[in-house]
Design goal:
The structure holds two protein chains of two kinds. By secondary structure, chain A is mainly alpha-helical. Chain A has helices spanning 17-33, 43-55, 69-82, 88-104, 126-143, 146-161, 168-192, and strands at residues 66-68, 110-112. Chain A has one domain (12-192). Chain A is 62% helix and 3% strand. In chain A, strands 1-2 form a two-stranded antiparallel sheet. Chain A is globular and about 50 Å long. The radius of gyration of chain B is 18 Å and the shape is globular. Chain B has helices spanning 18-29, 46-59, 93-101, 117-120, 142-150, 188-210, 232-245; strands at 2-4, 11-14, 36-39, 81-84, 106-109, 125-130, 153-159, 169-178, 215-217, 253-256. In chain B, strand 3 (36-39), helix 2 and strand 4 (81-84) form a beta-alpha-beta unit. Classes of the chains: A mainly alpha, B alpha/beta.
Chain lengths: 193, 257
Amino acid sequence: MNNNINYSYAKLDLVDYLPSYINNRIQAIESIKNDRYTKYNNFNQICVELEKLTDGLNNKRIDDSTIDILTFLVKQCKSIRIVTSPDYNSLKNIFIIQKKFEVFKKLFSRYDKNKFVKATNIPASLEVYILLSIILNIIHYKTINYNSFNTSSKLIDFCLTDNHKYTDERIRLLECAIGLEMILINNFIIDLK
Amino acid sequence: MISYKSPETIAMLIWPSLRALAYLEVLNEYDFLPDEVIILKNDEGNQINRDLANESRKYNYHQFYNISNNINDFFVNKNCKVINLNTKDVNDPMVIRSVKRLKNKYIIFSGGGILKKIILSLNKFFIHIHPGIIPTYRGSTCFNYSLLENYSLGSTAYFMNKNIDSGEIILQRDFKINYFIHPDQPLFIDYILDNYIRSQTLKATLALFRDNIDFKTRIEDCSGFAYYIMHPLLRYLTIEKINKEFSHKIKSEIKMI
């Protein structure tokens, strides 16, 4: 899976940027879903849906030397929803994974626990990218971290623009990611007023 | 803290760009044009230059720097050794050979890529101007992040090393912006604001050199995370924030504080 979007000096069309951005997101998910986009009105609604969706994800036991990235992110997604203000140390590994995505545009399914280098050549599943996007935006929601918000939007681009296999569960998860991005945009605009 | 004697002359590695133009304008203004320049090839950016010229006609970008200048014109009838290289790669072996032969120790870097270890190991001091206050704002498009987070704007002049935005800091400058960005100014942030604050920080660095003031550098702990290239959505939100902060009651400007 390769994401070829080049964000460096990408030209912005400032006329109606935001409505057009939101519309593009909705159109993209509706074309994958072949149905209407499920709109989320607040963070708690998304959390309830995430609870159901992450419970359904396959939780593999983490062995001593390697980390199954999906299992790790499912765990992180649950814990970060509960804490009011996550501290930097608890998020360190998330930021390492974030950096890996930013630098290599690709994640793998297992990483070495100590050095956090890839422990397999098997690519990470789409759920990993979606969950990482959700976690990063929850970090922004709780701690105001624009670097997280930024990578989260790139991850959504990645999930929407490449040729992925979309299951119903993946679509619902992706709707949560997009829903969270919409809430954060809305919060930003409200804060400006 | 490490002490340095101000250089009497400097060199410049030019990757032709609007940023290089902004730099040359302040160098010329300070009568401190480099006496050795290596000019690389860059055919890209013609469309940007045309679009920017259109924006400039309406919004007078010349108040920040003259975007219509020509790089080569700065060196006509000047005592400057100009080395033109047929490459756009700042790490090309031709560039490395040419940098090695420069008599100057201090070289202003005007961008065009990330310098690799081999070129940074040539016993030269590459001066880079980063649009952010190090160590808090390291990485890409940092001025957008600082504006979004706390409406701050700053820039750092430092000697480059192999790590990103982690070299010895020469000086730092803060800016205030009161400017309204209209929908037909999509290039303002990346090509005017960014280049302008960098060039003004270069100007402050040149003031040290011109007055022959010995200067001290300092090293900050840069082990924390760096910022990543900004997504267009957040760049747009930055513009919204700048516009929201704009006041008609005070002068529209970008000012060093």
